Amino acid sequence: MLSRASSDLLSTGQNEKEAPVTPVQPEVPELSQSKTEHMKTPEEELQPENPPAETSAPKDHLGSLKIRPVSEPSLSPAMKNELEECETWIDRFRKLENALYLCDLSNTGVLEKERARRLIHNYNLIYNLSLSPRKIDQALRRFRSGENMLLEPALRYLKEL
User: Fold this and answer.
1) What is the enclosing helix (H) or strand (E) of 122?
2) In this structure, is residue 130 part of a structural domain?
3) Which domain holds residue 17?
4) Distance CA 113, CA 103 (A)
5) Cβ atoms within 10 A of the Cβ of 84, count?
6) Higher confidence at residue 54 or residue 138?
7) Are 19 and 36 in contact (CB under 8 A)?
8) Domain match, 85 and 141 both
9) Where is this region: Disordered (predicted)?
């Protein structure tokens, strides 16, 4: 311990000639004092105080695995992009659904056919939903009730395309 303290003293830049001749307790830097407060066991001395980066790597690897729930399969980057595109398409389609349902003021589930056609066409263009005009017309014809369109089945039909 004394040799360690004296080596710490020498490492601070003082050489042996500058050390006092009288037997005075040498000044030990604060860092080494904090080390001497707790006597280390031989096992603790063998372990470095700052573990190498290699030991923290598995923790990071485990952290990245926690991002994906176990129930979801791991996906390739191409499949992830396709999934993200699909999710954003559904989000954009929901905006169309919400607009149509908001126009149904009496909450009957039906909307005037021409008004529904204009809304679907405009949202299709604005949000790039890629709904063909022919499929939109088919939905309007199949799910009509007189001059009105049944919203739920028509939207389900358009969503399945």
Assistant:
1) helix 113-126
2) yes
3) 1-39
4) 12
5) 10
6) 138
7) no
8) yes
9) 1-79
Q: Could you identify the residue written with the tokens 């149904």?
A: 104
> Nearest-5° angle of CA 16, CA 20, CA 21?
95
Distance CA 77, CA 83 (A): 10
Residues 141 and 84 both lie in one domain: yes
83/141 same-domain check? yes
Same domain, 149 and 84: yes
**What is the rounded distance in angstroms from the CA atom of residue 129 to the CA atom of residue 9?**
75
Q: What is the DSSP string of 60-81?
A: HHHHHHTTS-TTSPP--HHHHH
Q: Residue 120 is encoded by which pair of tokens?
A: 């679907």
Task: Give me the residue label for tokens 């009509």.
Answer: 144
Q: Is residue 131 part of a domain?
A: yes
Q: Rounded to whole angstroms, how far apart are CA atoms 137 and 144?
A: 11
Number of domains in the chain: 2
Which one-letter amino acid corresponds to residue 8? Answer: D
- Residue 150 in 3-state DSSP? strand
Same domain for 92 and 23, yes or no, is no
